[in-house]
Description:
The chain is an alpha/beta fold. The protein has 10 helices and 13 strands.
Amino acid sequence: MSTRSIRITRAERQHAVDCILRPAHVPLFLNDTLSATRKAVPEGPIKLYVCGVTPYDTTHLGHAFTFVHFDTLVRAMRWLAPDRQVVYVQNVTDIDDSILQRARTLQMDWRSLGDEQLEQYLADMRDLNVAEPTHLVRATASIPTMLKIIKLLLEREAAYVVDRGSVFFRVRSVPTYGELSKLSREAMLEIASQQDDADVDDPRKEDPLDFALWKGWSGQTDEPCWESPWGSGRPGWHIECSALAYQYLGEQVTIHGGGADLMFPHHESEIAESETAFQKRPFAQIWSHVAMVRKDGEKMSKSLGNMVFVRELLRNYSADAIRLNLLQHHYHEV
């Protein structure tokens, strides 16, 4: 009797291993910030939106913790459920008060600064073996969509136009504002007062918590502007992510993620904008927030001078060592 060996391809071998190791059907659970419970990822296509970087400074360990986590999540979802489509959208906030301020300090063009820092961020992510999202998109690529949403909010009387062509969101039009962060009005005002672009004392506002959807041009020659029905200007921070999520994923998403520091005011305001504009609730079925990274018991911050930069770590440690160290910490815990 012939005892010829049977040759199998590498792909066939991997398929056999997957059939043995991959569970037939295992629901994936994530901590949902809004409900404060663990929720199963719903059936069907998975639409994931994650708030990305504002490219005005060097990539630090906090960025790495967030994006290594979501990279691992996407890989796990695609492996556990290969028959389910996973679309991962990550934005780049390439127009923002912080970019403009940093560019002025460095006497650089804001576009050049953003391009330079984005290139460094992408290089750092590649070196950490973080796969690119399905769509990595700049906020400035979605200005028409932002204008469309702002028009809808004005029609629903959830926004109002003030002098110099600025448009503000009317927070009192959303009784559930604050539901995600579970903060009191006083706490929200305290946090908002520390934000670069919140302008809680702006006399044009009906309420100090109202936030800018569109910022009328200030007249400064180094400040970019786009045409709108209300005059030249640029978008506010929160409308950028509402627009990009809608443009690439539709009116509702499966999972919305980001760092815990974005919970308020950014994600709270995204919910208000998107649910009011499209009249669909919930905007996101699961809110997944990655905890802050601490060093010596203190939150990493530029003001404390305790930042750990990815580029510096990669000079001394391998990407696998850094990833393994980060993944030893639960994403939901500091």
